[in-house]
Specification:
Elements lengths: L4 E4 L5 H12 L3 E6 L3 H13 L4 E5 L5 H14 L5 E4 L14 H29 L2 E5 L14 H21 L5 E7 L12 H4 L8 H13 L7 E4 L6
Length: 238
């Protein structure tokens, strides 16, 4: 049988790149989406091919419907299947809400929320063929959200992504397609990591990229789990 195929949006750097490597190690072929990090995406795809599978670097600005449609057409031609859409893009540009411009707002909502929907819409024909997974990277504390005015566009986009995830899970379950969310807290590479994570975070440490990979692997193997949001946050935002 052919290897399962994953597409990771924003997959060239940081968390996306780490999850791409983990999936490749687990026997997946991986399409690495990027917007502007061409060199990093091509290098990662070459690295993944060196591990024995197939990998592709696919350029698309996910906030642009035409880009997304072209990316999935290319994936369908090159891979012929899709088993996991991992919506990993997350524009996070903290500033006071009163200083957020309409362009700032459109950038965050377009990439994070609209981009997730565009990718789901384009991916569904392939996912339905084999009963695939949609997994979205969220934001810790969404189930009992406390407003953070310095991150309002990001929070709004992630709440919308949670609603989208639950709606997809309910509608697509009879077709064998599952939709879930993984919500990191403060990771060791977070841009706003507390100065002293050992005392600021209940678990006594920042999260690791492997913590997120563990949740991803759980969801991929949990055939009866859909429509859930898993906080991988060490108690952050409880």
């Amino acid at each position: 049988m052919s290897r399962p195929v994953a597409l990771i949006t924003g997959g060239a750097l940081r968390l996306g790149a780490h999850l791409a490597r983990c999936l490749a190690d687990d026997g997946w072929d991986v399409a690495v989406n990027y917007r502007s990090s061409a060199a990093e995406a091509e290098a990662l795809a070459a690295e993944l091919r060196g591990r024995g599978g197939n990998a592709w670097a696919l350029q698309a600005d996910v906030s642009r419907r035409g880009d997304v449609a072209a990316m999935f057409a290319s994936l369908a031609e090159g891979a012929g299947r899709l088993d996991l859409l991992l919506n990993n893009v997350g524009i996070y540009e903290p500033k006071p809400l009163s200083e957020v411009t309409p362009d700032d707002w459109d950038h965050a909502i377009g990439a994070n929320l609209s981009g997730s929907f565009y990718c789901v819409h384009a991916a569904l024909p392939l996912l339905r063929e084999g009963g695939g997974n949609i997994i979205t990277i969220g934001y810790a504390g969404l189930d009992a959200l406390t407003a953070a005015p310095e991150a309002a566009p990001y929070q709004v986009s992630k709440v919308g992504m949670l609603v989208l995830t639950k709606a997809l899970a309910k509608e697509l379950a009879p077709e064998g397609v599952r939709a879930n969310m993984i919500s990191p807290g403060q990771l060791e590479n977070s841009v706003d990591l507390p100065d002293d994570p050992a005392t600021a975070l209940p678990a006594g440490r920042a999260g690791t990229l492997d913590d997120i990979a563990g949740a991803l692997r759980y969801l991929l193997g949990a055939d009866y789990v859909t429509g859930v949001n898993i906080d991988v946050a060490g108690g952050y935002r409880l």
